[in-house]
Amino acid sequence: MVDLADIDVIAPNFKRRLSGVTSTVIRLVPLQAEQMAITACAPEMPEHVPNVAWPALLRMSRAGPRGARVWHARRNVEMIAGLALKRLLGKRLKLLFTSASQRAHTGLTKALIARMDAVIATSAKTAAYLERPATVIHHGIDTDTFAPTPDKAALKRALGLPPGPLLGCFGRIRAQKGTDVFVDAMISVLQSHGDAAGIVMGRAVDKDQAFLEDLRARVTAAGMADRILFLPEVPVWKTPEFYQALDIYIAPQRWEGFGLTPLEAMACGAPAIATRVGAFEELIVDGETGTLIDAGDVDQMVAAANALLSDPAQLAAWSANARRHMVDRFQLSQEAEAIMAIYRNLLAKG
Questions:
Q1: Is there a single domain that holds both residue 300 and residue 257?
Q2: Same domain membership, residue 135 and residue 24
Q3: Domain that holds residue 306
């Protein structure tokens, strides 16, 4: 049971459905709780994540153990809640916002960001859209959980996946995510590589069901229904196994705020072919850990995939490079510590 009287940092997550922000809170808060008095504030969290229900915020003491508490928002609604707690209810809060968006902000968002005590940007591209100074902190991943499997062939059998080279695209199924580009590219690539297969793993919400059905129809019409597989979204704790089964990961997004999936894939030893959106240009070393391509360009995706599948030695070298790059530069502990440095600075200002 979390007692807010003992808490220095609150990380709200007001969205019930799984999202990138939810995953971030789930990953970071338990690790940070080993060193700081921090809790999430969310409708649902796994049991290992310290968490309080939002009504507890109304009852919490005005000040925390060290004076002001840090309120770390990652969405507009959470910035609004922090301001309401501070301005209307008199809670002593230092307001911190993490921005992942790469587009011009609305007037409301600009006004909210201007009232924050500090701002984090998840990439240099994101920072460029902010009209105030921000600290750039890239997302990290747990490189112990996301790690290469010692027996990929056995894992593929256990998961019921095809035994040959496997190319994957994970996440929401919709046009913004470029799932159609991946499918069209795979239809071409698999014609040249008879032992390879592709998987799309994720969820399509109601408004994207027609989009998904069209993709399935394209695959069936191409005679690839047994080689381009559509798998349902799996629980967070199951996703590492599917990354470990991949030989190449493809991030085909047309737009992205940050884009965590290539990091998770590369940590598992799968080089990434990714579009030049989000933070991908800051995450992937082009020609060493993967290939960068233009968004929406099927031909570039086909060429990049064909090049790797046709050169097993290069694929193996890039696989090793990708894993090493993640361990050296993108560990979750590095992200957690960089954020905690900001928490400590804000707390010191009381």
A1: yes
A2: yes
A3: 152-329
Is 91 part of any domain?
yes
Same domain, 15 and 29: yes
DSSP string, 313-344: HHHHHHHHHHHHHHHHH-BHHHHHHHHHHHHH
Contacts of 329 by beta carbon, 8 Å cutoff, 6+ apart: 138
Cα distances (Å, whole numbers) of residue 344 to 8, 38, 162: 10, 12, 49
Stretch 153-162: mean pLDDT, rounded?
Answer: 97
Instruction: Name every residue whose Cβ is closer than 8 Å to that of residue 213 and which is 6 or more positions away in sequence.
Output: none
**Residue 90 has which token pair?**
């008199």
Residue 236 gets which letter from DSSP? G
Rounded distance between C-alpha atoms, residue 53 and residue 56, angstroms: 6
Mean pLDDT of 78-102: 95
- The CATH number linked to 22 is 3.40.50.2000
Q: Per the domain annotation, does 244 fall within a domain?
A: yes
Residue 107, H or E segment: helix 107-114
Q: Which residues are 273's β-sheet partners?
A: 250, 291
- 18 pLDDT band, cuts 50/70/90, is low
